Amino acid sequence: MASRMPSHSAILSKSLRASFQCLHRRPAQSLTPVQRQLQRRNISAYGYEQAKALTFPEYGDPPSVLSLHSHSISPAHGNLMTLRFLASPINPADINQIQGVYPSKPRFTTSLSTAAPIAVAGNEGVAEIIALGDKVKGEGFKRGDWVIMNGPGFGTWRTHASAETKDVVKLEEAARQGITPIQAGTVSINPCTAYRMLKDFVSLQPGEWFIQNGANSGVGRAAIQLGKQWGLKSINVIRARDDKAKEDKLKQELKDLGADVVITDVELQAQGIRDQAKEWTSGGREPIRLALNCVNGKAATAMAKLLASESHFVTYGAMSKQPLTIPASMLIFKDIHFHGFWVSKWANGNVEGKKKTVEDVLGLIREGKFKDTPTEVINWEWETKGEDLIAKVKDTLEGYREGKGVFVFGKT
Ligand SMILES: NC(=O)c1ccc[n+]([C@@H]2O[C@H](COP(=O)([O-])OP(=O)(O)OC[C@H]3O[C@@H](n4cnc5c(N)ncnc54)[C@H](OP(=O)(O)O)[C@@H]3O)[C@@H](O)[C@H]2O)c1
């Protein structure tokens, strides 16, 4: 077992450090069961948990501002619990947050034993409770429970954290049954966003159509699958690939998830698309009444043009970094209703609704009716170097990826 030293030793007394090192040097057979457990978890005899986190001292380009920071967490007491993270994804919003262009700001703090404030990156993830104070026990939590974050800004790209009950939502035993850490760690943002957007803007009946761009994104894949479950039909727009074989493979992948039609942004903007759409929708007798947009630019406007009068167009992302341009005629003559959606804001006022939405999706996963979004697992062990983790974050800044980067925590 690799030994490790607390980097912020200032907060540990000399004797505490001695006991920590002593525990790590002794062969396992000479330890008591409790000491053996502590050694396995790499905590000091006094219960100080050693933690590492990807943090940033200021907003900027993620590879430039991120660094791996080590610190100690004091034993859980009162209303505090100690979490050990299991899986945390790298979502586009996490990148925007580090860049300082996301509306939800992280907490810059010196509580992780730094002279100047730093913030922990990451907004989504699942963690297990490894220690808890009496008040937390009194609220129905126990060791081994899995929790997801209650809202953005907590900082999930870290091995461990100290949290209060208000920071987390517990995944009940039944909801967690048969669910992997990656599934639990990626359920609360993208699938919830797709779920709410399909349900909350217009009441689509089985057999009705929606159209979406960014269809191969986590949200897009979730929308395809939820829509299929609910009997909806979908037209799905992806970005064209230079490599036609790859493009065809991606189209087929989305059809296998339940997409009725998959086209590229180039095909969407080509002449004759209206006639084509009529063909798909039984000569236009099946109106397309909802559009989901996370891209913007000309391709989003082209998507809006396929909507029936009085339909709803929901914007929830801005991947192309282009503005959304709406011809006045769409408002005046077609009365298309344009909305924005932000799942964090929705969840703020819907704590129970979020829990129910998460449980519904986990239920579909358990029944084999909802496939995971493709992921690139980024293993994070105690010894993993900061530069390797940051290089993986940098990779996610590129488009045309085959899978979402997810930190999966091993022996931490
Ligand atoms: N408002 C909300 O509550 C909410 C919640 C969740 C997510 N979101 C937003 O939803 C979007 C998708 O998030 P996600 O986590 O599902 O994504 P993801 O799985 O990480 O996938 C990224 C998606 O963005 C596309 N993309 C990347 N660069 C692009 C560009 N320059 N122009 C057009 N498309 C581009 C990718 O297409 P390629 O494969 O072609 O690169 C892919 O479809 C993001 O904008 C995110 O911020 C919003």
From TrEMBL:
Locations listed in the record: Mitochondrion
Domain Enoyl reductase (ER): 61-409
Record's keyword terms, sorted: Fatty acid biosynthesis, Fatty acid metabolism, Lipid biosynthesis, Lipid metabolism, Mitochondrion, NADP, Oxidoreductase, Transit peptide
CC annotations in GO: mitochondrion
Pfam families the UniProt entry points to: ADH_N, ADH_zinc_N
Catalytically driven reaction(s): a 2,3-saturated acyl-[ACP] + NADP(+) = a (2E)-enoyl-[ACP] + NADPH + H(+)
Molecular function terms from GO: enoyl-[acyl-carrier-protein] reductase (NADPH) activity
UniProt family annotation: Belongs to the zinc-containing alcohol dehydrogenase family. Quinone oxidoreductase subfamily.
EC number: 1.3.1.104
Record has Transmembrane helix as a keyword: no
Biological processes annotated in GO: fatty acid biosynthetic process
Principal EC category: oxidoreductase
Name of the protein this chain belongs to: enoyl-[acyl-carrier-protein] reductase
Highest taxon, organism lineage: Eukaryota
Record's keyword annotation contains Lipid biosynthesis: yes
SUPFAM superfamilies in the record: GroES-like, NAD(P)-binding Rossmann-fold domains
